[in-house]
Fold each of these.
Amino acid sequence: MIRSATSKDTPQILETWLQASLLAHPFISSCFWRSWLNDMEQIYLPQAETYVCEQYDEVVGFSSLVENHLAALFVLPMHQGRGHGKRLLQHAQSIRNELSLCVYSRNTRALTFYRRAGFREQHERRDFHTGEFERLMMWIREPERIPS
């Protein structure tokens, strides 16, 4: 089930973000991710529209939108590969007509995931915080075709 996040979900969202970030980005120091936990809690999550994916009353993943930007989509490592990320992404696509996101160029698993969901790469740039290259990707809803 996907639902809007509440403040009581914050500890699990933060734990999900940290565990998934460490797994997906071994090319970035774990100290970097841990140093951003407070900012995630105090700055980024409060300004985002966040949704959680629950399974058996446990938060197993989340997505955060800032306007039309998919700022985060993370699933607990032990729950990855079971369709939770896909459901979260489909939910975001169902409530927006277009989405942008940034993904590290070395995160090939995420690049493949987003390409399969219809995202197209726009350009590559260097992330200010990590020095790693990241790719800006875009998705735009296809217009509905009216039968002729």
Note: The helical segments are 10-24, 30-35, 37-47, 84-95, 108-116.
Amino acid sequence: MVAPPILRIALAVPFFKSGLTRWDGFLSLSPSTAFLFENMFKLHIFGGEYPFPMPIVVAHLVGMAEITLPILLVLGLGTRFVALGLLTMTGIIQLTVPEGWANFHLPWASMALAIMALGPGRLSLDAVITLVPKRGFRRTT
């Protein structure tokens, strides 16, 4: 089945590309990312705009998630949990950039839900891991 790996790659690409822009070296947040989370990004909830709590901590967490989750997704490791993480991130992005729903957030949410429903597919580390107990290890003498 080719759909699950294609869905995994399609969902991983925009998050990974975004994650690459967050860093200015290993675990060194870029100044623009810090500025965005401290000054520009606001949560739009019930008609009000609210700043992110602990914006630098949130920026670090987002940056790490945008790198690690897409890699895990492409590998197909912990696929359904990773898709849930990206779906959650999409929801928070929707609260931050409400006008992006139709062009970006809806397709991302749809892909994440499809991955959660279909699973990782045969071309995934999850599939390899589940095959090992079924086949077992046989000792040859």
Note: Residues 101 and 122 are 31 Å apart (CA to CA).
Amino acid sequence: MLATARTFTLDGIAARPVRVEIDVRRGLPAFSVVGLPDTAVREARERVRAALANCGFEFPLRRIVANLAPASLRKAGPGLDLAIAVALLTASEQLEWEALPRVAMVGELALDGSTRPVPGALAIAEAARELGAEILVVPVENGAEAALAPGIEVISLESLAQLPELAAGRWSPVPPQSLPFVLDGDGGGGDLADLRGQPHLRYAMEVAAAGGHSLLMVGPPGAGKSLAASRLPSIMPPLARGEALEVARIASACGKLAGGPVGQRPFRAPHHTISPAGLVGGGSPPGPGEITLAHRGVLFLDELCEFRRDALEALRAPLEAGSVAIVRASSALRLPCRFMLVAASNPCPCGRGEVDAECSCAPQAVRSYQSKLSGALADRLDILTTVRQPSAEAMGGEAGEPSASVRERVCEARERQASRLGAGRCNAEMTPAEARESALAEGAAALLAESYSRRRLSGRAHDRVLRLARTVADLAGAEAIGRDEMAQALQLRRRDA
């Protein structure tokens, strides 16, 4: 007898539909799984066999063929276990479920028949709704996550033993409560008041948060670079609901949505030993990297010059495009990565800097250390700021301005950008044409032209200065970019030796 069940497999961060077809017929006992399964899917045969036996079902001693359609799509992970078990029970006439054509299911099975969570429940729930499924059956641990998707009934299943009661309509589980949304919080990560002194760095952070600009901080160890970066989410505006779902979908597909509230901006700080594939994505099968996990949030690279140069160079295209294309011989993915790059670096290997009399680094060592950051990547960083060691008076003085006050100004600037560019867009995302159409007051255009010639700015740097100046004007509430705003933007891109 032939039976089918609907399920999904993850392809990057997207859920792809899979139809499980089970054929049970006479012949020598065998259980074959076809349709490009990976090792975890092939091993489902033994998990399903033990789960059925331990839940009181009979495993048919016949020839069983499980086809996973479409056959050209690679299936990965143990999330197909539940659909294989349901289709097998239906094909062996041990289960009658009239609503099965309207049901999608996903879940891993333990040997005792209980269900285990799988990644990507939110993406699967949204894909199931779009394909017309009315019910989605998931493990209990995935219920709250799947319930984030509106328009589909989510059933949390604890064990295969509950299937007969569910199919017969004698058991109606309580719908799971979705994960809470926190869209008006402070972003987490502490308060900016903890950063003592550093007025130039604080202003650079405010401009970066207001316009979504990338930021590089260069200074000695202990000057407050890492502290400042960790406080940046606390001054960023809250996510819109659609953006929060987008961030949650990515975290869910990567197995990092651990039942907490949804709506906070991600903050990713990978170690400097990370590989290019871990940073931008890759592997076999290809999957998302840190830049995708930092989508709509902050990617912090501490000790920038300790990172591998090939890993840093891989950031150039994603910084411009807001997405990354991962192409392999058998598959191709395009993943979102609209993030704020925040980096911190020492000026030399010893950290003191050449201007410090106690710096013992040879000139060649300094050049080798700083060469990890190529000119092409540095040109794509909007704000370059030098961080000095704070004075004793600043360290022992009063706390700085709190995050709530700075965040209020940042939100007002973002509202001006949304009214001008459209909802969800900020100045860092302006196209070159949009940047050059910015209104310039008298003197601003002349100052930019003079700096372009004198400092030999690139065309990209010219446009990035315009975007920075537009953000400075938005923070000041100015309609046009004046000479003062242009001067501040040029200063923010300048780093002293």
Note: The chain is about 35% helix and 15% strand.
Amino acid sequence: MSGKEAMVFVVRRGEETLCAKVYKEATHRSFRQAVDYTENRKVKNSRQARAMAKGSKFGKQAMEAAWQSAEVDALYRLAAAGVRVPTPYNFAEGVLLMELVTDAEGDAAPRLNDVAFSETDALAHHATLLREVVRMLGAGVVHGDLSEFNILLAGDGPVIIDLPQAVDAAGNNHAARMLLRDVANLRAFFGQYAPQLKTTRYGEEIWQLYQHGLLTEETPLTGLYRPQEGAVDLEALMDEVEDARLEEAARILRMQQPG
């Protein structure tokens, strides 16, 4: 299967059947298009950062490497957090080796947009994916481009794929907008089969709970949202953002420490 950013192959490793994602050289993605996603991402050195900003040949190569690395890092991070993503096995020289997601018959799983659903199944899958969005947020990640085109329907339920545009929930100023768009995409798709979803506002509810430190995997979601009234305390808001950033930095540091 060939997409605009990569070709995906079914491969054999011994007796195992796996999936290999081979990244293409990007020719369509501009720095302007990518800047919202790359905000607060780390690069190896200042020379790379300057080259990426200028859009030089070296800068474009560095940018593409950063996009690939972001997907790999997010995939390992989310798999460790129990999010329904393909299990990653290795990444080398632009090739990502990972689990092959299959349907109930053992064939390559279809994307959601290739499947029609009953109202019951649509509601069930929508609820499952909302929980995965919450679990991702708990791991500090927003997908950034979640839709029916990058979710596979495995034999045991939906699996989220394609994460090169994943952003840091606490460190990217566009994270809230991207999460709202991700959840709105789910609402629009499953709302075709379960019209009662069309009036829900799960995205706003999830982000509000996250901002106030009240979001866990067990938090009940209603789909209702009441905007906060009154003047915004900008200083307090920025303090919350900084606290979240420091907490996330400390969590990453703990993960990197041996033992």
Note: Residues 57-80 form the longest helix (24 residues).
